[in-house]
Design goal:
The protein is of the alpha/beta class. It is built from twelve helices and eleven strands. Helix 8 packs across helix 9.
Length: 331
């Protein structure tokens, strides 16, 4: 199958209906395997999954360099999204530090272009809101980069409603990337209505709950030290037990549909609106194929309501990040 396209925002950005989160190819989810990662990236093109998500901080820098190597000579076949705004010193991310000063944004974009081996970034996100820099200055700087041809579209990540409005008033925001899934619904009360009012697309990251909704989960302590999930509050202790129970409905509907639980979680997102493009992350061809196949799974209204009700915020146990990670979310 070849994926259909969806539009993100009202500025003309068109992408594959499901994208590919590339972070795990370089960090956070066990050891890297460059050969399999590049094979997965090439197979993504074959499947029509051509919306690829990276960031300067993934590695840092290694993930953009990986994409640059993988797509040498094939740049016109993909849509690349990358991000700026997290503080990096001596090749390491500095905790919760942020840096969205205009001069720094320009430096980061030049570095990303060099690593990616391209003359333009299709979608450039601010990775997290920087409280020290007015969002108007950020939007204006990205707007200037669009005029220069270095960037095509502007996005935000984990921004709240007020900053989305302020940024969009200066330069059109095409997409918001934020965590959104069956078990992380924080965008529904305020943010999604604002996106639809302003004509901004939504790109959910961690659409499978960092793998929890895929069904093959283990307790936090059973993951290796370098795996993000080892410190994920929702994978720990009583939270884990409660969340396994809450997610049972996903496995039940998957059995009815003869599908994988992760495919049901992705199909739920796709059924939430044509302005939503999830970017499940994987570094293996097998899981890429499973994710892409979710695009043809139909979920009826009764099943959607069942899923909605089973995984409401009060039924999901634990914060989605540590306290430090939550401090960077603009809500």
């Amino acid at each position: 199958m070849t994926l259909m396209k969806r539009k993100l925002g009202s500025q003309g950005l068109e992408v594959s209906a499901i994208g590919l989160g590339c972070m795990g190819m370089s960090q956070n989810y066990g050891p890297a395997d460059e050969r399999e990662s590049i094979a997965t990236l090439h197979h993504a093109i074959d499947l029509g999954c051509t919306f690829l998500d990276t960031a300067e901080v993934y590695g840092p820098f290694a993930n953009e360099e990986l994409l640059g190597r993988a797509f040498k000579g094939r740049r016109d076949q993909i849509v690349i999204a990358t991000k700026f705004g997290l503080r990096i010193e001596n090749g390491k991310q500095m905790g919760t530090g942020r840096n969205s000063r205009p001069e720094h944004i320009r430096e980061v974009v030049d570095g990303s272009l060099r690593r990616l081996g391209t003359d333009h970034i299709d979608l450039l996100y601010q990775h997290r809101i920087d409280p020290a820099v007015p969002i108007e200055d950020v939007a204006g700087t990205v707007g200037d980069l669009v005029k220069l041809g270095k960037v095509r579209y502007f996005g935000l990540s984990e921004a709240g409603a007020a900053n989305i409005r302020r940024a969009h008033a200066v330069f059109p925001v095409s997409a918001l990337q934020s965590e959104y899934s069956l078990w992380e619904r924080n965008l529904e009360p305020e943010v999604i209505p604002v996106l639809r009012e302003l004509g901004i697309g939504l790109v959910p990251f961690s659409p499978l709950g960092r793998g929890f909704l895929a069904g093959n989960v283990k307790r936090a302590e059973d993951y290796p030290d370098n795996d993000f999930r080892r410190n994920d509050p929702r994978y720990q202790g009583e939270n884990y037990d409660a969340n396994v129970q809450a997610a049972q409905v996903v496995r039940d509907i998957a059995a009815i549909k003869q599908a994988k639980p992760g495919q049901i979680a992705l199909a739920w997102l796709l059924h939430k609106g044509v302005d939503i493009v999830p970017i499940p992350g994987t570094k293996r061809r097998q899981y890429l194929e499973e994710n892409v196949a979710a695009a043809v799974i139909e979920i009826d209204q009764a099943q959607m309501q069942l899923l909605d009700a089973a995984l409401t915020p009060e039924k999901v146990s634990g914060l989605r990040y540590s306290a430090a990670g939550m401090s960077m979310i603009d809500r």
